[in-house]
Amino acid sequence: MNVLNQQWLERIEQELESNILGFWMKHTVDEQNGGFYGFISRDLTVNPEAGKSLVLNTRILWTFASAYRILGNEQYLKIADRAYNYVKKHFIDNEFGGLYWMVDAAGSPLETKKQVYGQAFAIYAFSEYYRATGNEAALQQAIELFRTLERYSYDKEYKGYFEALTREWQETDDNSLSEKDLNEKKSMNTHLHVMEGYTNLYRVWKSDELHAKLKELIEITIKHIVNPDNAHFILFFDEQWNYRSEHISYGHDIEGSWLLFEAAEVLGDEALLEEVKAIAIRMAEATFNEGVDEDGGLLNEAGPDGLIDTHKDWWPQAEAVVGFYNAYQMTGEEKYRDAAVRSWSFIEDFIVDKEHGEWLWSVTRDGTPSDNIEKVSPWKCPYHNGRACFEMIERLKGAPTH
């Protein structure tokens, strides 16, 4: 390893262990109600009554299972065990299958609908916990959840997956993932993360049925979700794949470029991998040309007429590090490595919260912290930044990431 890579690796390892994982172990454990607090503000004010989201809890599980698998620290295993046991006890719907979207502070069901995005993260987390620990029950839960999604969420007519269903897996008009999202039947975001969950499950369960579904998901992404004209993701669709949005999310584009490549790589279909590689490079190039600001930070969103959100949220910065480095590994072009390094430097300079720890939600275009005070919340989790560190540690060390 050259000196520059060694220095960068040391900075990443320090950030991961001392600031990210250390913060979540020190500040988020809910000793009174079990599991983890649902909300902590930027100044570390805890709201002990906040609801607890499926996304937050499965992402904590995934992050600390990964941390234990890669770094071997028993303290990380303790947090992973805590997260797994909490999700198993409080989120799994033992009557109808799947997992609740939200529980209250005490762990009772609060929002019972089956948001497919959340189910995907449970598959991702359970399969990672199995990778880290060999826990057979977690693997079986992931497999069962895969089959449940295929039974209820899969669109047999037009392919792909519906956004959400009721607790009983019936059709619903309440599809939106969050207040920011359109109330449409299908979205890029859900398909991206179902693919991510299926990819991780396929690493440990090489079944023919999963192989076929993962391959189809990759093909759906290529056919419907990546815009062939500009190599950006289309964000929302009706059930027939007519697009419902012209917004561009640079963070999702660069994240998707490497997750799509990873999915094809894990699948092991050489012809499909070559097709995906060309698309992933186009996606990274489009983000590189349009989304990177002069300071190296990644801007949030654009529309047909230009930028519409010039904030720089924490998670696109994390994904930019991995996505651009992945583009460098695919092409050998130094500009992508430089973009990944600049992304990391931007994170260190502006996104890391040097006063209270972990990362800020976002900064404005000039680098001032935004007015979003969330440090821990349904969507503010250790997954994007933790995963960026895991990916870069393995890539810089030259270890196979898959």
Description:
The model has no long low-confidence stretch (mean pLDDT 96). This protein is mostly helical and 402 residues long. The radius of gyration is 20 Å and the shape is globular. It has one domain (3-396): Alpha/alpha barrel (Glycosyltransferase). It is built from twelve helices and 14 strands. The strands form six sheets. The protein has a three-stranded antiparallel beta sheet with strand order 2-3-4. Strands 9-10-11 form a three-stranded antiparallel beta sheet.
The tally of beta strands, per DSSP, is 14
- Number of contiguous helices: 12
- The overall average pLDDT, rounded, is 96
* Overall morphology: globular
Strand arrangement within the widest β-sheet reads 2-3-4
User: Largest sheet at a glance?
Assistant: 3 strands, antiparallel
CATH class: Mainly Alpha
Give the proportion of residues in helices. Answer: 40-55%
